[in-house]
Amino acid sequence: MSENSIDATTRARDDPERREDEIRSYALGQPVSATGFPFSASPSRRFLPSVFKWLVRLSRFGLAALFLFTAGAKIAIAKTFATNVSELLSASGFNYERWMWPTTIAVITAEVITATLLLVPRTVRIGAVCAAALLMGFAGYALYYVYVLNGEPLECGCFGGIIGSQLGVSTALRNLGLLVPALVVFFGYKRPATALPSRRPNKDNERNYPKSP
Predict the structure, then answer these.
(1) Other C-beta atoms within 10 Å of 62: how many?
(2) How far apart are CA 104 and CA 122, in angstroms?
(3) What is the pLDDT of residue 107?
(4) In terms of Cα–Cα distance, which of 40, 37, 41 is closest to 19?
(5) Which of 14, 90, 122, 160 is at a distance of 20 to 30 A from 184, taking alpha carbons?
(6) Strand partners, 38
(7) Of 154, 138, 127, which Cα lies nearest the Cα of 64?
């Protein structure tokens, strides 16, 4: 190692500001050089993580918007949606008069809670799990209704009265396809790292309290 490299390394270690920059870089997961400064990644290495980061964001907010939209659409035609639910409950052998409204309210509430969890940074991964559970539940019941109960095509009211959607294989495939963004959010989301506060020497204190010889 040359004398200039040794001097640069020594100066970086003796400089408190550079040492704190090094600590902050380690806290943020950035590689640090011997002189205390973060390495600059090549453009190709920065491109793929940036694309995946935006894919996670798009999946997260897209799912949240979808669940808020479907919940709002169901609320707009609450009575009609409750009637559709009663028909599904009756076909499944449940007492539809007793469980029609509790089931309707439970579905809408679950969608609103899932969207809220996806929007709050601390609960994004929990929201992704809830989204996956709802999607698999909807898809599973659609397949059960078609292949086990041999039910007739029925308007499920998933999107209220805005978009027509019949309960069946297409509904199940659509919900299973939406599992992809839910998995992307669950495995790809990372909470933003909090940088360590900078601790710089107070010049006023240095003036008021002279250094001892």
Answers:
(1) 14
(2) 28
(3) 94
(4) 37
(5) 160
(6) 32
(7) 127
> Encoding tokens for residue 82?
């409750």
Question: What interhelical angle do 43-76 and 96-119 show, nearest 10?
Answer: 150
Q: What is the pLDDT of residues 5-63, one digit of tens each?
A: 444 444 545 555 555 555 555 444 555 444 555 555 556 566 667 888 899 999 999 99
Cβ burial 159-181 (10 Å sphere, 16+ → b, else e): ebeeeebebbeebbeebbebeeb
Q: What count of residues does the chain have?
A: 213
Q: Which amino acid, one-letter code, is at 128?
A: A
Phi/psi at 205 (5° precision)? -65, -35
Contact 39, 30 (CB under 8 A): yes
Which amino acid would we find at residue 121?
Answer: P
Which residue ranges make up each domain of the chain?
A: 1-40, 43-188
Closest among 126, 4, 115 to 63, alpha carbons compared? 115
Instruction: Quote the CA–CA distance of 12 and 10 in Å, as a whole number.
Output: 5
**What CA–CA distance (Å, rounded) separates 31 from 33?**
7
The Cα angle at residue 111 between residues 100 and 188, in degrees rounded to 5 = 150
Here the tokens at position 65 are 């918007």
Query: Within a 13 Å sphere around the CA of 21, how many CA atoms are in the beta-carbon half?
Result: 15
Q: How many CA atoms lie within 13 A of 78 on its CB side?
A: 10
Helix residue ranges per DSSP H, the chain? 3-14, 16-27, 43-76, 78-91, 96-119, 124-143, 169-177, 179-188, 203-208
